[in-house]
Write a structure and sequence with these properties.
single chain; mainly alpha; Four Helix Bundle (Hemerythrin (Met), subunit A); about 75% helix
Length: about 200
Amino acid sequence: MLVHLPNLLTLSRIVVLPPLIACLWIGGETFRWVALALYALASITDYFDGYLARTLDVQSAFGRLLDPIADKLLVGACLLILSALGYIEGWTVLAGLVILLREILVSGLREFLAEIRVGMPVSGLAKWKTAIQMLAIGFLIIGTDAPGWTQAQLVGEVGLWLAAGITLLTGWDYLRSGLKHLASMEADRPPQPTPKPERILP
C-alpha cells in the first residue's frame, strides 16, 4: 500500500516541507530559488499521484486519506512561513487567512459527511482554485528575488486574492452541501417521546 508510486509521491509532499521551510527561513536569493524548486516538485506530485493511481489502478484508502492531508500541510506551511517572514504582508495576509480557514471548514465537513457515508467530490471551480493558489504561492516564494520584469511579488499577491475569492465561493458550496445533508438527517430522525414529568410526592 505505502510502496505504491502514487502514495510515495503524495508522501514526498510532506517530506519536502522541512527543507523547503529551512530554505525560506535562511533566506537570500539562492535559498529562495531552491525553495521554489522544492515547492514546484511538490506541486507537480499533486497532479501525478492521482493520475498514476487511476492509470495503474492502485487507488487505496490510504492514498485518499493522505492526499488531502499532504495538500493542506504544503499550502498551510507555505502561507504561514511566508507571512511570518514578511513575504506576504499587509492586506494580502487576509487572503491567506481566508484560504486557511476554508481548508479547516472543508476538512470538518468532509469528516462529518464521512461519518454518514456521504462523499464530497471536488468541483471544477475548486480545481481552478487549487491551480491558481499553487501558482500564486510559487510566485510569492521567489518574490522580490525574481527578475524584475516578472513582477513575481505582484503576480503572487493578485493570484492569492483571486484564489481567496474562489475559495469563498467553493467554501460556501461545500457548507451548503453539508447543511443540506444535516437537515435531511434531522428530518429522517424519528421524533423522540417527550419524557413525563416526575410526580413529586407531598
